[in-house]
Please model this.
Amino acid sequence: MQLEVHRIDPARRNDFYRVHSAINDAACCFCVAWWVPTWDGWSDRPPIRNRAFRDKLFDRGEYDGYLLYDDGKPVGWCQVGPRDRLEKLVAQFNLSPDPQSWAITCFLIAPSYRQQGYASFMLDEILIDLKTRGVKRIEAFPKRGKNLSAADMWTGPESTYRKAGFELVSDNPETPVLALTL
Model:
C-alpha cells in the first residue's frame, strides 16, 4: 500500500471522475452541492446536469480539492477551498464573512477503502499542504445523528476532524461547525 495525496489539477481531472463513479456509489453529485444557489430542487437534479456543472467549474479553473491515491489508483476525494466562495454554505450555517477561512465541504472515500484510516491519512496530508500554502483557518461541517448511512457522511466524519485537532465552533446537534487554526 502506497498512499499519496495530490491537489487536483487539469491532469488529474479524469481521476476525479474515477472516484465520482457508479462503482463508488458516487455518480450523482460530482461535488457541486455547495456550488448551486439553493437546496430547492436538489433531489430532482439529474447526475448529468451535476457533471456538466462540475465540468464548467473545472473549465473556469476551479480545481478545489485533493485526491487520495492507493498504489496509483484514485480512491478518495476531498473538496477544500476558500469558504466564502460558497454562498449557500455561508448562509446555511449563518457564518460571518471571513475571507481568511477555508472550508472542507466534501469527503469521499471509495467504499472498499473505508474504515481503514484513509480519511485520517488524507486529512492530515491536506492540513500539511494547506499550512504550507499559508492557510490560517479551516472549517468542517460534519453531520451528526443516530444511524447515519455512508451517504450521510459526505461532509466527512466528525471523529476524523476531532482526531486532527478540530474544535467545536457551533454545537448544532445535527450539523456542528468545527474549526482548526493552522
Remarks:
- The chain has one domain: 3-181.
- DSSP finds five helices and seven strands in the chain.
- The first helix runs from residue 13 to 19.
